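AI-2E family transporter: structure, please.
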Amino acid sequence: MNSRDSQLSERLQTGFLGVIAFGLIMFLLVQARFLLICLAIAIIIFSLTSDAISAFARLRVPNWLATTLALIAIAISLLWAATTVVAQVNEVVSTSILYADRAQAALSSLSQRWGPQVQESIATFLGSIDFAGWIRSAAGQASSLISGSVLVVTFVGFMFSERIWFPVKIENLTGDPARAENVLHVIHTIMRRVNRYLVVKAAISAVTAALIWVIFRAAGLELSGAMATLTFILNFIPTIGTIIATGTAIAVILAQTGDPTATLIIGGACTAVQFLIGNILDPLLLGQTLRLSTFGIILALAFWGALWGIAGTFLAVPIMVAVMIVCAQIPWLRPVAILLSHEGLPDEEPPDPLRLRG
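Here you go.
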């Protein structure tokens, strides 16, 4: 009985300490989310550009020159992207004020066809939504992009400066060349899968955004650039991003035209673009690039979205890839990797998405 009691006491103590550690980690993830988000983005950018620098090195370009040019390009790209998003958000804010009355009139005329009860329900629902608060929140988050971009560039610069010594540090930390080689292999696998996903996803999102821009311009609507930018960004969020982008586009069309028929036609075209690309082109190019469970992706979106907001939904998939690959290398965490994988095969290398199926 004494041995059983001692074992039970040790297990309870271990579980209690685990709960405390989990709560502390969640607290730190929330309190330091701005710093951690910038660090995660910096790691992704470093991963994407390190291969390019290695390619330049093979062309006998000095490493310091390739690194300097990469940092300059990253800084210019991030600042340009941040200022573009801020400008588009400001345009949406100013334009939404102009079309607020027209949108209310359009919704009123549309709801009158369904009877007074439906009209009252829609009015109550719209009155409960704090559109002004959402706009102010979006503008505030957009304005923080510039300061975040500066921090990301700083992180990337220090990562490049430590890039040469990283394998040596891993070997000294592990104390075993074979174990160090295994750790570096895991890191390279994560970088390769995430890079492959981001490059293909960026190309697909760019095509979708370009088609949305063409539809808005052809219909003579405003905010074509803003809607294209929003579509490009939201398409990086699996499933949910496409729904939000399509719903926002339809709402903007209704607010500008005030005509349900025109909204149905133009909104139907935007929906068709999202549906065809999301259900044909996206699976054809991406396929099983990440080999992640669909249900696991939804859980990751909900978890990281609750912790880090919008930024968390963008980083959920890369973080999930890293967690799955790392758990696959640890025996007592391998069941977690199997549950996160799509086919229960977390170690199997995914096919190249750039090779179309014959």
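Notes: The longest helix spans residues 63-112.
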